């Protein structure tokens, strides 16, 4: 089945969708990138071009390869343009209702052989697959952020996923030069089941006044040898995504230890979503990030 993947559809041109389009185009796939509006698509393309241009400057990519990769990406604000795709990866907002709507309307535009995947950080692959007309061809392909730099991809089979779908997804990941790991279909899978409760705990530590933003991040960088502090990482992931993952863990595992921190809820309610809105636990509007608490 893998040999048949030539054209990739990506739904959502945000941080993750643009990263997935970037690595796929650089690996030689034709990519159709979809989002709700031309503005979002242009922002996604600008991100891809910016990242590739920085790579060229650093010697990580040739100018020719950059131009070629960009020419392989087309954009579309409707699903009709995804008709020729062999695999479509959904990387839209982490909200089950949004994803269910996408998958239930998308199928009518696809050929019967098209494989479907979600890049969800936490939501049940089995449930998402169930709203499609091809649950056996559905799989979780969970890339890490930033996609061009991170080596790992989690593969998650739904209960309906057939072995050929898994093998095709694995072959696709291999062709991107990434390393897959396999997780069962449980809330937040492996990486986020471990990572997000730590981030949520860091927000509780801030909320309870145990330490400042700077103290918490410095403590975990220098005291636990983490490359990035947990609050800096939360801003990088997006606080809306962090909250959505904690809600899936809290509801899906029915255990109070996953209760989202009220301060995280407040930041999201304020629209302070981290880097993508220029303000989260740090304020990114100036030359250097300034801690907000
Ligand atoms: N941010 C991370 O670190 C990270 C890591 C791994 C996986 N993910 C997952 O990837 C997905 C996307 O996250 P992100 O960080 O890129 O979010 P983002 O907010 O940067 O981008 C989401 C994009 O989806 C688009 N969108 C929303 N509804 C849509 C629809 N109906 N049709 C088409 N496009 C639609 C939005 O316009 C936006 O451009 C989420 O499921 C998230 O959990 C995120």
TrEMBL record:
| All copies of domain 3-hydroxyacyl-CoA dehydrogenase NAD binding, residue ranges | 8-185
Q: What is its EC number?
A: 1.1.1.157
Q: According to the lineage, what is the superkingdom?
A: Bacteria
Keyword check for Membrane: no
Keywords in alphabetical order, please: NAD, Oxidoreductase
GO terms (BP aspect):
fatty acid metabolic process
Q: Where is the 3-hydroxyacyl-CoA dehydrogenase C-terminal domain?
A: 189-284
Q: Which residues bind NAD(+)?
A: 12-17, 35, 94, 99, 121, 145, 276
Gene Ontology MF term list: 3-hydroxybutyryl-CoA dehydrogenase activity; NAD+ binding
Q: Where in the sequence is the signal peptide annotated?
A: none
Family note: Belongs to the 3-hydroxyacyl-CoA dehydrogenase family.
Q: What is this protein called?
A: 3-hydroxybutyryl-CoA dehydrogenase
- Protein species of origin: Lichenibacterium minor
Supply the source organism's classification.
Bacteria, Pseudomonadati, Pseudomonadota, Alphaproteobacteria, Hyphomicrobiales
